[in-house]
Amino acid sequence: MNNIFIDSHMEEIICRIDNLTPNSEPRWGIMNVAQMLAHCSSFQDIAMGIYVPQRHWLGKLIGPLFKSIIYNDKPMKPNSPTVPAARITDEKEFEFERGELKRKLRAFQANGPEKCANRLHPFFGKLTPEQWGKGTYKHLDHHLKQFGV
């Protein structure tokens, strides 16, 4: 599984983000491309500890049992559920959201794996830095595939 903390994997993701256009259409789901970028950006806020949403009781109960979903080699399924804190329904501006996501990804990588050692995923619970790196890549890959890049 690729890991966002590996430079070549990060650059691949950045190039794919740069290949999006305001007219990119989703292959599944209800978000437009700007909303998807904002969604991924909000997930980065969680991964970086900028925003710490409350953990849902169901996540506390069964999240740890299923957390390999976030970092294993199996692709995420279209229309996978998301945490409420990362749901985006309002209109967003494409260029702003693309720039914000790239800025946050670069900051996340520059901070290094050790900065996310004690971060809790709102559903899956505690992840190791390696799991955060793989999970971040996997989440971005899923949404970039959603928009054909």
Report on this model:
The protein is globular, with a radius of gyration of 14 Å. It has helices at residues 7-18, 33-47, 57-66, 94-111, 129-146; strands at residues 120-121, 125-126. It contains 5 helices and 2 strands; from the N terminus they run H-H-H-H-E-E-H. The mean pLDDT is 94. The protein has 149 residues and is mostly helical. It has a two-stranded antiparallel ribbon.
Basic shape:
globular
Q: What is the number of beta strands?
A: 2
| Mean pLDDT reading | 94
Q: What Rg do the Cα atoms give?
A: 14 Å
Helix content: 40-55%
* CA distance, first residue to last residue: 18 Å
Ranges where pLDDT stays below 50 over 5 or more residues in a row are none
Percentage of residues in DSSP E strands: under 5%
- The largest beta-sheet arranges its strands as 1-2
Structural class comes to mainly alpha
Instruction: Characterize the biggest β-sheet.
Output: 2 strands, antiparallel
Total count of helical runs of at least 4 residues: 5
Order of helices and strands: HHHHEEH
